[in-house]
């Protein structure tokens, strides 16, 4: 045992690399893990007794502890310094011996490669110190004087920097980076020990190595014990609430099936209240799509492809953050030209902002007058916010409770951090202010988009009021002024703050990365321009609603070339500014201020061309029926997919070797699970509550039954005004939402 641990320590320091830094979250009463349990089990006197018994009297038990502990990390020269041991085997150790209750504790320790006071003895002293060895220049090894390959050192330092920034970007809990000039500073091995639960890792390690490592600096990153997930208020609320919804679902489905299937009665005569939560009716309605001559069918495809881009990007970058066995390979991939479709993926969110602005104008301009908007402004806001709440609140509660109990694994500390964030900061997400209040600890970290979308929706009547008027000049003036002000304001703000132009900017100090994330990436000011561009495109589509647009094919081809070139340049920019030698603040300022409205304008041309017959095969692909289904699922997919990716990653039993083809298989798994989960959320949560909200906010008298008009732009009477969701697709005449 002594030789085994001595060998593994030697292997740990024989090469240079880096891995994730995990700092325990500040204890709270709602903490995902029982931190007090970890403190209460420590008994150093019992630890010495149990270690002595294990080493001297129980070879089988000793081997179980050894077998569940770490091995020398694989692919060390590829940048991997983590070994996870055998998580479940360790926690499964439980044996009552004499008066001792010996149980396994999974403890991950960080061992910095810079050790100021540690030095291993020479080989004779290490193997048999009492033997009279002949004089010989036996090698001594000191990690601080070991020579490392300069090229490898540079790559690993760059990767460590990128990993730290990506962890911050993904909302993970990481500690501050060291500012030391030493090449080893901040770099550490991260190894999993299986030790008796009454021991601390340092105490057990020193005892097992006969104090040879007494001067070795190590820190416990996190620890796990069996049954260390305490039940808190969120768990009880989730059980009661979802059990009640489940009961309603069973009762409503039973009534619906009996009425419609068994008794073969007219579904229209069924009690609407008794079918609100019916799986049968909601599933049937989910696949019903009403035709509409003014529908912008390509939006479903654009939304679907944008959603897939989001998911594939998250699939790749979460591996870069903390799970790869060969991090240097994935790091090289994201810096390469062929990694552009991953590194530029952040721009896809601006596609959603553009669509939001487009549909806000396109769906309201034909239905709502100025006075109707002003008189019913409260409904305009309330309908939008309430339509977001059911799925969002359900996923917040699921994250705070059920997801924490579905499975487990050696990477669970990331999921635990997400659970803690939702238990502490759920209110800021439901108030849509998380990007301002707690940007580094958001509940559902990716929902900063929803916060900004709602904030822009709340401010939109400032421009929308003029758009709904009869004067096109005032409408154009209002939108042009809004675009100029938003771009000028963002440009001034960006120039003053001198932001980097990409989340992971290897040529910038890491203090700039947090500054970029908080004050640029999730800041509302920088997301206004694509929303305004969307409003302009929506107004143009409204002007030509039902009309035939005649455009020379040469002009159409030229616009396609301009839009394609502009969007390609937006994507290409991430190849240059992710390189370690990038240092051009002027270019960063230009990129930050221009790429979002330029991208939105390019997508806007795509929508216009497809709508008015200049999209050819592009429109045919984007208008396929399958994208209608994905478009209807896209909002729930956006909310739930990220948490599922973290859940899957957390269950990995060892670091995974990165390869692009394997990551694409992982994307297919992540995408499929997101589709299934979002479908269930739509049927069980979104559709029932959408109908309840529609009943609650429908207002006014219903007109007598008559044939529906073929043109949806017929204005609603002011007394029957209902707010139109910013992401409601125009073809859903029965208020069935297809949101992003």
Automatic annotation (TrEMBL):
Signal sequence coordinates: 1-20
Pfam families tied to this protein: Acyl_transf_3, NRF
Domain Nose resistant-to-fluoxetine protein N-terminal: 59-203
Residues passing through the membrane, by range: 236-255, 305-323, 338-365, 386-404, 448-468, 475-496, 516-541, 553-578, 635-658, 664-685
Organism superkingdom: Eukaryota
Keywords: Membrane, Signal, Transmembrane, Transmembrane helix
Alphabetical list of InterPro entries matching this protein: Acyl_transf_3_dom, Nose-resist-to-fluoxetine_N, O2_lipid_transport_reg
Acyltransferase domain location: 298-685
PANTHER family given in the database record: O-ACYLTRANSFERASE, O-ACYLTRANSFERASE LIKE PROTEIN
Protein name per the record: Nose resistant to fluoxetine protein 6
């Amino acid at each position: 045992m002594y030789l085994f641990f001595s060998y593994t320590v030697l292997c740990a320091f024989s090469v240079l690399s880096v891995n994730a830094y995990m700092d325990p979250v500040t204890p709270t009463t709602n903490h995902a893990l029982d931190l007090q349990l970890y403190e209460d089990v420590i008994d150093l006197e019992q630890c010495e007794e149990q270690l002595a018994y294990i080493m001297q009297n129980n070879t089988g038990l000793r081997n179980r502890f050894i077998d569940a502990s770490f091995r020398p990390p694989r692919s060390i020269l590829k940048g991997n310094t983590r070994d996870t041991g055998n998580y479940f085997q360790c926690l499964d150790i439980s044996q009552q011996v004499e008066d001792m209750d010996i149980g396994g504790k999974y403890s991950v320790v960080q061992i910095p490669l810079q050790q100021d006071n540690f030095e291993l003895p020479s080989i004779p002293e290490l193997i048999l110190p009492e033997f009279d060895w002949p004089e010989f220049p036996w090698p001594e090894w000191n990690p601080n004087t070991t020579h490392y390959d300069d090229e490898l050192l540079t790559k690993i330092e760059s990767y460590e920097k990128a990993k730290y920034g990506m962890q911050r970007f993904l909302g993970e809990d990481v500690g501050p980076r060291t500012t030391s000039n030493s090449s080893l500073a901040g770099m550490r091995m991260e190894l999993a020990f299986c030790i008796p639960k009454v021991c601390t890792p340092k105490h057990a390690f020193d005892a097992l190595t006969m104090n040879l490592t007494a001067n070795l600096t190590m820190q416990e990153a996190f620890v796990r014990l069996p049954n260390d997930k305490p039940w808190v208020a969120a768990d009880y609320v989730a059980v009661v609430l979802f059990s009640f919804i489940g009961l309603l679902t069973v009762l409503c489905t039973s009534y619906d099936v009996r009425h419609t299937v068994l008794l073969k009665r007219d579904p229209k005569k069924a009690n609407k209240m008794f079918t609100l939560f019916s799986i049968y009716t909601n599933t049937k309605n989910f696949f019903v799509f009403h035709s509409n001559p003014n529908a912008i069918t390509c939006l479903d495809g654009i939304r679907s492809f944008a959603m897939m881009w989001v998911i594939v990007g998250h699939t790749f970058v979460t591996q870069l953050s903390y799970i790869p066995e060969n991090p240097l390979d994935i790091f090289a991939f994201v810096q390469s030209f062929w990694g552009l479709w991953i590194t530029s993926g952040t721009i896809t969110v601006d596609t959603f902002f553009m669509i939001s602005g487009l549909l806000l104008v396109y769906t309201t301009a034909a239905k709502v007058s100025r006075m109707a908007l002003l008189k019913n402004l409260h409904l305009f806001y309330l309908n939008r916010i309430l339509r977001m709440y059911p799925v969002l609140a359900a996923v917040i509660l699921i994250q705070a409770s059920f997801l924490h109990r579905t499975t487990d694994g050696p990477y669970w500390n990331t999921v635990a951090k997400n659970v803690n964030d939702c238990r502490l900061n759920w209110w800021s997400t439901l108030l849509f202010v998380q990007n301002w209040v707690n940007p580094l600890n958001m509940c559902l970290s990716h929902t900063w988009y929803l916060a900004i979308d709602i904030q822009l929706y709340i401010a939109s009547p400032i421009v929308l009021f003029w758009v709904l008027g009869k004067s096109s000049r005032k409408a154009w003036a209002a939108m042009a002024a809004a675009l100029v002000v938003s771009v000028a304001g963002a440009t001034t703000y960006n120039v003053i703050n001198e932001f980097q132009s990409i989340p992971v900017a290897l040529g910038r100090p890491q203090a700039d990365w947090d500054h970029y994330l908080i004050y640029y990436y999730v800041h509302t000011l920088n997301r206004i321009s694509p929303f305004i561009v969307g409003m302009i495109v929506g107004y143009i589509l409204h002007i030509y609603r039902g009309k035939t647009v005649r455009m020379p094919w040469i002009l159409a081809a030229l616009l396609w070339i301009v839009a394609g070139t502009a969007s390609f340049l937006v994507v290409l920019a991430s190849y240059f500014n992710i390189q370690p030698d990038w240092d051009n603040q002027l270019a960063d300022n230009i990129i930050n201020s221009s790429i979002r409205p330029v991208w939105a304008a390019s997508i806007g041309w795509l929508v216009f061309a497809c709508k008015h017959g200049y999209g050819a095969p592009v429109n045919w692909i984007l208008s396929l029926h399958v994208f209608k289904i994905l478009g209807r699922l896209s909002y729930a997919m956006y909310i739930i997919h990220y948490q599922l990716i973290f859940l899957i990653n957390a269950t990995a039993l060892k670091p995974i070797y990165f390869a692009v083809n394997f990551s694409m298989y992982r994307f297919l798994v992540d995408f499929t699970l997101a589709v299934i989960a979002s479908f269930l959320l739509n049927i069980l949560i979104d559709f029932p509550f959408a109908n309840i909200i529609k009943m609650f906010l429908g207002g006014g008298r219903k007109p007598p039954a008559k044939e529906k008009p073929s043109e949806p732009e017929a204005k609603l009477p002011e007394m029957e005004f209902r707010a139109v969701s910013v992401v409601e697709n125009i073809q859903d005449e029965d208020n069935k939402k297809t949101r992003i």
